[in-house]
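Task: sequence design from structure.
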């Protein structure tokens, strides 16, 4: 099963800030962990939805992912997005869009296109699953 297949299996699961498990809900980081088979307990929860340091998030991503050029991203890769000046978000890229834990809709959704939010960087899992 690919990361996209796993992410799709969570469509409709509830959004929960700092959520790490399908049974209780996901945030964007928890969804990425689940889709890429990363132990969610290995990823800190000491962040806020807004106003946190993107450098810390990138440092955490580098533990599991390599940064790649945005134009080379393929399904299953992770996009770091910036919905607002003080907010960052992760999405799992699909064939024509992305899957993410949507705080506004309160659930995991798949969008038919890549977000209108600026994509700051793209990341590919560095270890085999």
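Answer:
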């Amino acid at each position: 099963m690919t990361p996209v297949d796993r992410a799709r299996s969570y469509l409709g699961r509830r959004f929960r800030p700092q959520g790490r498990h399908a049974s209780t809900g996901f945030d964007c980081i928890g969804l990425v962990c689940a889709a890429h088979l990363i132990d969610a307990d290995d990823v800190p929860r000491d962040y806020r939805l807004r106003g946190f340091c993107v450098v810390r998030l990138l440092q955490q991503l580098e533990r599991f992912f390599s940064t790649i050029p945005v134009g080379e991203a393929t399904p299953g890769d992770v996009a770091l997005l910036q919905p607002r000046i003080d907010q960052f978000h992760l999405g799992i890229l699909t064939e024509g869009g992305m899957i993410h834990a949507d705080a506004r809709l309160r659930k995991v959704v798949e969008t038919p296109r890549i977000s209108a939010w600026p994509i700051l960087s793209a990341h590919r899992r560095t270890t085999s699953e």
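The two ends are 10 Å apart (CA to CA).
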